[in-house]
Specification:
The chain is built from seven helices and eleven strands. Helices cover 30% and strands 23% of the residues. A hairpin with a 4-residue loop joins strand 2 and strand 3. By secondary structure, it is α/β, with parallel strands linked by helices. 42% of the residues are buried.
Length: 209
């Protein structure tokens, strides 16, 4: 049965973040809120936990997972970023955008698209997530919390507990009910392209939706 932590949305309790980070380090899967919607996350190096996220969402190996990072320097460690891409990332992050980039050698191959070696990366504008990442000291492997057969993400901690209390290890509940997906932007071609229009505005990217 999962642990359910009620976390302050603006000033998350350090004690709860430390406990959640320890659960993740020990192989746990977390459900947590972001600036767009709830997500599932786990330790970067834990194949079994990544496989659990894929099972919960019924995802195959071709579905991109996302690295949730603390800052741009962390993105630059796990992805190949040129100067033009960096300027776009800097203009939009932190925020509700996921950028598809070419993965660096730091990324385990099981996390990248099997044919194109690409990876989604983002920096959420959310104090709980950033505090959790500081405790972990590394990115989270993550996926939006959309249950099989549904098209919209889950929106509340209590509903996640009812549905997944035996499938995740910790639920971080800040009482938010955000239900938006990120805007996904492909930066792996010469011209950036919006793959999915979500919460992040196209105007901020300088692109048409």
């Amino acid at each position: 049965m999962s642990q359910h932590f009620h976390v302050h949305p603006d000033n998350p309790q350090p004690r709860l973040l430390r406990q959640a980070a320890e659960i993740i380090r020990n192989g746990g899967v977390a459900a947590y809120p972001t600036d767009s919607c709830y997500a599932l996350g786990c330790h970067l190096g834990d194949k079994a936990a990544v496989d659990r996220i894929r099972r919960i969402r019924e995802l195959d190996d071709s579905h991109w997972l996302t690295l949730i990072c603390r800052d741009l320097s962390e993105i630059a460690r796990y992805a190949r970023v040129d100067n033009v891409q960096y300027r776009l990332l800097k203009a939009c992050l932190p925020g509700p955008y996921t950028f598809i980039l070419e993965a660096s050698r730091e990324v385990p191959k099981r996390l990248v698209h099997p044919k194109r070696l690409h990876l989604g990366l983002r920096i959420p504008d959310h104090p709980l997530v950033l505090g959790l990442l500081d405790e972990l000291g590394e990115p989270l492997v993550s996926s939006s919390l959309i249950l099989p057969g549904e098209s919209e993400p889950m929106t509340a901690g209590w509903a996640i507990r009812d549905a997944l209390e035996h499938q995740v290890d910790v639920i971080l509940d800040d009482s938010s009910e955000a239900a938006h997906l990120t805007t996904v932007v492909d930066l792996t071609t010469d011209t950036p392209a919006i793959v999915r229009q979500g919460l992040g505005s196209a105007a901020r990217l300088g692109l048409a939706a």
